[in-house]
Design a protein that fits this description.
This protein has about 325 residues and is of the alpha+beta class. Helices cover about 20% and strands about 40% of the residues.
Length: about 325
């Protein structure tokens, strides 16, 4: 009886130990771990949880170093399985692919981002509106990878600006997540001004229309004080000389369009309470609307002055006495 009891206790103890062993193993490995073919990570270390679905409690186990920021590395699938086995992670089935693509996510810092940093610093240094700053970078700038988790991927660590020439030297700090690096960028930052220029050549005396003008931004120091900078001051004005496309236009280059030219036949008009006269005459000079010109009455052969009121029309000035006007216009 004692022997039977001892044998029974041995059997029970063996079953308990087997159960405990199975539970211990289950807590340290996943029952359905499966290797992924593509992995995207942010940090510098690749873990079992990055590589395997179902890594369980071993998900945080570090196994490989990650590629550099912005780089995709190829990890042999066999190496990943060996690392899992060494850590005690059971892999249900071997993968059919030979390598795992490990992508280290990043935020690219390109030329546009660098120009924005420089423009902001230059605008502050020069005390001008940010929109008026134009930045150019020396050479060709290749994007730099910053950490994908970086709140501020790039910032200016140092900035030197020469106001006279606009030359700058900028030290840019790149956030790598667990580290940082600096790069040096040089170029020019200048204050610009928006000005209207012609988009086609304009001949002498041609009228400028809104469709003939384009707004461009150029270095403010290249804009003479005599330049016309308001589009409304150019529209419906005439060129006093031939003007080239892209040329800055000075106030001396334009004038009101001439609606009467020397030798044109015009209508002379004179009116006052109780008196209205008109006659035909020939202009003795060019005139824009509002100009005072001389007109020869071809019938009386007398010259009289008047103000141009429109194409082919001259209003005789009231400074002439009615008697003189009647004599000159009859």
């Amino acid at each position: 009886m004692a022997m039977i009891r001892a044998l029974f206790l041995r059997i029970v103890l063996a079953a308990v130990l087997a159960s405990l062993a199975a539970g211990f193993i289950a807590t340290h490995q996943a029952s359905a771990a499966e290797l992924r073919q593509r992995v995207e990570i942010d940090g510098a270390i690749v873990t079992l949880g990055d590589l395997f679905d179902g890594a369980g409690d071993l998900a945080g186990r570090a196994v490989f170093r990650a590629p550099d920021l912005g780089v995709t590395g190829a990890l042999p699938a066999a190496d990943a399985v060996k690392a899992a086995a060494a850590a005690g992670l059971s892999v249900d089935r071997l993968p059919t692919f030979t390598s795992v693509n490990v992508v280290r996510r990043s935020t690219p810092v390109d030329a546009t981002a660098i120009k924005s940093l420089v423009a902001d610093a230059a605008a502050t240094r020069m005390a001008v509106a940010l929109d008026n700053i134009e930045v150019s970078i020396d050479g060709t700038f290749s994007p730099v990878a910053a950490a994908a988790t970086a709140t501020v991927p790039a910032s200016l660590a140092d900035f030197v600006l020469q106001p006279e020439s606009g030359r700058f030297n900028a030290t840019v700090a790149i956030d790598l997540g667990d580290d940082s690096r600096t790069i040096v960028v040089t170029g020019r930052a200048i204050e610009t001004m928006a000005v209207p220029v012609l988009n086609r050549p304009i001949a002498r005396r041609d009228v400028i229309h809104a469709s003939d003008l384009t707004i461009v931004r150029i270095d403010k120091r290249r804009v003479p004080g005599s330049s016309v900078i308001d589009t409304s001051d150019l529209v419906d004005m005439a060129a006093k000389r031939p003007l080239r496309a892209g040329e800055l236009i000075a106030t001396v280059d334009i004038e009101p369009p001439r609606v009467i030219l020397r030798g044109d036949l015009v209508t002379l008009q004179y009116s006052r309470p109780g008196l209205a006269l008109s006659a035909r005459g020939r202009a003795q000079g060019d005139g824009a609307k509002g100009d005072l010109i001389s007109v020869l009455n071809e019938q009386s052969k007398r010259t009289i002055q008047g103000v141009v009121t429109g194409a082919g029309t001259v209003e005789v000035t009231t400074s002439n006495s009615p008697t003189v006007v009647k004599t000159a216009m009859n």
